[in-house]
Amino acid sequence: MPRLPSAVILALAAGVGLWAPAQEAVHVHAVLEAWYTQMLSDNLRLDAAPAAAPYYASGALNPAFREDTFTLRRTNLYLDGRVGDQVAWGVMLDPNTSSNSQPAATSSLQDAWMAYAWTPRITVKMGQFKMPMNFESTLLGASKLLFYDRAMTARMWAEKRDRGVLATWRVGDPRGLSAKLSLGLGNGMTDSTLTYKANDTNAQKDVDLAVNAAFGEAHRFGGWYRAGETDVRDVGLVAGTFPGPGAPNAAAVLANEDRTTNLGAYYLYDDSRWQGAVEVSTGLLGRRYPSVFPAGTAPPAKALRQHLDQRYLGYTLSGALKLGRHWLTARYDALDFNQGNAWYTASDPYTTDVATGAPTGSDFTPRYYEAILGYNYLFNPARYADGKIKLDFIHRGRNFLAPRAGQTGAQGGDSLVLSVMVGF
């Protein structure tokens, strides 16, 4: 990906620093959420990813995967306001970062941005925020989620903030067909092993493109694309090794620079009785499971995926029947970390011993799913975001946990999650 001159970045963001004459009132909002999780399978106590497919590393498992526990899931505090007619700003903090489903961050600061409206239809935003990717992360705040948590692709990647600039152009008629066209430029630190909210360590930047459209009140649809590369400092890089006779050499691994992409689309229907959504996304895993490591890494460093150009595929189907205070919900959520089964070994690394080719008797293919049946009780039927009690039965695939002593083969586990949420 080309390195962009600092002058280009500064020119894109120049309007954000402009000051308008009058400060308006600051608005304060909050979302508080607590969980109780009840495991329905004892092997959830192990909480250990299989060595053959470590895509759900133990430290990154969602708290709902774990044994019986009370969890403080969110303590989100939002502050926002305006300065005159053209400048807006916003800050969001979550002091409870240790309970987040994403890898632990070193700061409770989630969002901090300023935006300048060049015209009524063109806005430029700069700071730390989520780039518009994934419909739940783009359209639905935490207080509007139907289920105990967002879908897997959002939890793994789309919820992570980046520091950068985002230009948005609004077109169409808000009462009919309208759209927001967005172009973003970010540090590309969303997959850093240290923290996903940080200043850049190299000159490469992520480019984000998104279209979010609406038709009337009920229909929302759109798509997005992200392109990026390694997030480690590009001096003295160490190439990771891939097993197998067809594996690329060090020069090819370094030339690839852990290219990372996202491509996705969604449709959401929402009226007074029904809500339904579908989303599909794919892309290169790249730096999320890196093959390029920083200087000083002891060779031979092992790549954390099975193929240089390994791709993922995720899709989600969800819906709700609204009956006043009582909503019935359902979701099917799937995420395949190796679409097309790409590897360099002579035999399947997820089902065989690659040294001998002999079957292991286990299938750790990193293809995961969650099927959810849920019930929501709303505190205020007229305002879903004010608060609710959610009870979700979560049935999961059986290949994301290693066996315990006395067990054989891939393991999984089902859960009940009770969520109590208040927004104000």
Write up this protein:
- This protein has 424 residues and is mainly beta.
- The chain is built from four helices and 19 strands.
- The strands form two sheets. It has a 16-stranded antiparallel barrel.
- The two termini are 43 Å apart.
- The relative contact order is 0.15.
- The model is unreliable at 4-21 and 99-104 (pLDDT under 50).
Give the strand order of the largest sheet, numbering strands 1, 2, ... along the chain.
1-2-3-4-5-6-7-8-9-11-12-15-16-17-18-19
- What can be said about the biggest beta sheet? 16 strands, antiparallel, barrel
Which band does the percent of strand residues land in?
35-45%
Total strand segments: 19
Mean pLDDT: 87
Form type: globular
H/I helix tally: 4
User: Strand-and-helix sequence, N→C?
Assistant: HEEEEEHHEEEEEHEEEEEEEEE
Residue windows where pLDDT falls under 50 for at least 5 positions? 4-21, 99-104
Helix content: under 10%
Q: How would you summarize the topology of this molecule?
A:
Elements: H1 6-13, E1 27-39, E2 69-83, E3 87-93, E4 109-117, E5 122-129, H2 135-139, H3 152-158, E6 162-172, E7 177-186, E8 206-215, E9 219-228, E10 238-241, H4 250-256, E11 260-270, E12 274-284, E13 292-293, E14 301-302, E15 311-323, E16 326-336, E17 367-378, E18 387-396, E19 415-423
Parallel strand pairs: 10-14
Antiparallel strand pairs: 1-2, 1-19, 2-3, 3-4, 4-5, 5-6, 6-7, 7-8, 8-9, 9-11, 10-13, 11-12, 12-15, 15-16, 16-17, 17-18, 18-19
